Amino acid sequence: MRHVLLSLGILLILTVSSLTAQVPRRSFLFKDARGELAQARARGEMDVLLVIASMPDQNEQVAQAIAGLGGTVQFQADEVDYIRARVPVDGVEELVSHSAVHSVDISITGSRAFGMAADAPVLPNSEDFSASGILSEAVNPDTIIWPPVLSDYPITNRYSPLFDIRASEFLDSNPTYDGRGVKIAMIDMNPDPLLPELQVATDLDGQPIRKIGVYGTAQDLEEEDDGRWIRMEDMVTAADGQFTYGDNTYVAPKDGTFRIALFHEARDSLATFGGSLENDVNRDGNPEGSSRLFGVLWDEETDDVWVDTNQDLSFADQTALTDYNDRPEFGVFGTDDPDTPIRESVAFGIQIAQEKKLIALNLGSASHATLVVGAALANRGSEGRFDGVAPGAQLISIAEGGSAYGQIESPLISIRDHGAEVVYFEQSSNITRNYLLRDGRLVPTVIYERLIDRYDPVILSPTHNYPILGGIDDFVMARGLIGINGHESKENFFINHGVRVEHDDNLLITGGYGPMGNGALKPDVISPSNYVSTALGFIEGRA
Ligand SMILES: [Ca+2]
Ligand SMILES: [Ca+2]
Ligand SMILES: [Ca+2]
Fold it and tell me: Which has the least CB within 10 A, 66, 102, 303, 470?
């Protein structure tokens, strides 16, 4: 009996300590969110997209309260008491003060609150020039900034940050501590999966496995349309191996009934969030008269998806793909010309949203995501050019989009659904920049803390992205989340940039400097940083 009582006592202490560990609820909107709400009113919008942390175990009560206010729940994760919902503008304040609600934010996007001023100088782009390189007369040369001309001298002894953290020596003496068996989620967009460095990982037994284990997006078409989600609204029935859709007759992969739609490579939204496609997914340069449309066919019974990547109006010559996370295979637009240094092709992974009748072509076209992933995960393999810090690790890539909700749901899906053990953020500081309280009560921060409590992943985040004393993304206030700052060594500056600097070690702006809103010091770790890494294979001058 005494033993039982003792156990109960310990249980009680544990329970009390976990209750008190919960950051206090924030039953008000900070002025960043109030400003967003005022702007939504001024724009005449009827409702706003909210991200909500409910009080522990009270997610359902909050969902009901949202319904009572006339709102719509779009995403609900009871494991961490998180909800995304559209709520009428006039109901937001009432919801915020509801006793079952822990904290609420408007799911802002980076572009809305922080657009450039109308008269801000801009970099010239290719459209400002004629084919012979003459600046168009329509462009005022006084309003553009000319970028510095980069040397074309080859870097023969490039610097790798592996040196500064002695990773090479560490791997020499601990050859199996190379990330094998570990799943790393990168919270960014989808990287280029055709790069030679992103082909191979290693399982715990040392056997080669595919590098990219998970490839998808957390983006909701209704909230962020960047062209990847296709509405599969039309139906066709193939008989005798063919069917007609629109003005064309197509060769079917088999007889039967399918959903069909056309993917448009020149959609305006296709370049959102760091895409580098230049409205040309098949890299043919868009010659005059070329079609910009690609048929997409979906057999709902088997979930096979065919994309007419070569535009020959036949699906019979295409490999049947399905949701990448069920059968990990990439499709490819375009064909590489072996005589050119860049790759004239772009890969995509399929994602299926059964209930919504949507297919996503998750294109491996995000330049920033491609840039950062290699530093951690690159694997020289048989054709790669360098190793990252953890060449054995496997990648989980759930594209986050540009809004607060995606930055919550991408890590949530990566951890809960795909078993991510390490999560690293390449978050948009725009989401947190105006939350000056920096007290760990921004909704994403609250949810990260709950993810850590429940699933025990390692979550790493840049502390901030700007050179400001006290600059801090609230995210790193989540208890257990590791805030990272970057530094560059004197040697790195010289070898990679040809710049001689005074000090041996130099802090980067990416990383922030304490103190935090609650008095804590961040960052927790200062890490060597450099962009000797992977880059998009289909853009000149990158790979
Ligand atoms: Ca094209
Ligand atoms: Ca075809
Ligand atoms: Ca080529």
Answer: 470
Is residue 538 a contact partner of residue 344, using CB atoms and an 8 Å limit? yes
In the block, which residue shows the tokens 């979550």?
459
Residues 82/412, Cβ–Cβ less than 8 Å = yes
Strands 101-106 and 47-54, by their bridges, are antiparallel
Q: Where are the alpha helices (DSSP H) in 121-218?
A: 167-173
Q: How far is the CA of 306 from the centre of ligand 2 (A)?
A: 9
Give the C-alpha separation, 218 to 408, whole Å.
9
Whether the CB-CB separation of 448 and 476 falls below 8 Å is answered with no
Tell me how many degrees the CA angle 73-76-77 measures, rounded to the nearest 5: 170
CA of 64 to the centre of ligand 2 (A): 48
3-state SS class at 394? strand
Compute the Cα dihedral for 516, 521, 524, 525 and give only its sign.
positive
Per the CB < 8 A criterion, the answer to whether 395 and 186 are in contact is yes
* Average pLDDT for the chain: 87
DSSP reduced 3-state for 306: strand
pLDDT tens-place string over residues 190-218: 999 999 999 999 999 999 999 999 999 99
Provide the β-strand partners of residue 73.
Answer: 85
Structure tokens, 26: 């924030």
Spacing, Cα 248 to ligand 1 middle (Å):
19
Domains of the chain: 24-106 (3.30.70.2980), 167-221+365-528 (3.40.50.200), 229-363 (no CATH)
pLDDT recorded at residue 45: 95
- What is the rounded CA–CA span in Å between residue 463 and residue 480? 13
The torsion angles phi and psi of 524, rounded to 5 degrees, stand at: -85, -35
Q: What is the pLDDT of residues 401-420, one digit of tens each?
A: 989 999 999 999 999 999 99
Q: For ligand 3, a single-atom ion, which residues have Cβ within 5 Å? A: 336-337, 340
Ligand with an atom nearest the CA of residue 334: 1
pLDDT of residue 7: 46
Hey, which residues does 129 pair with through a beta bridge? 135
Ligand nearest the Cα of residue 265 is: 1
What is the number of the ligand closest to the CA of 251? 2
Q: Calculate how far, in angstroms, residue 268's C-alpha sits from the geometric centre of ligand 1.
A: 14
CA distances from 214 to 71, 112, 258 (A): 32, 30, 26
Ligand showing the shortest atom-to-Cα distance for residue 337: 3
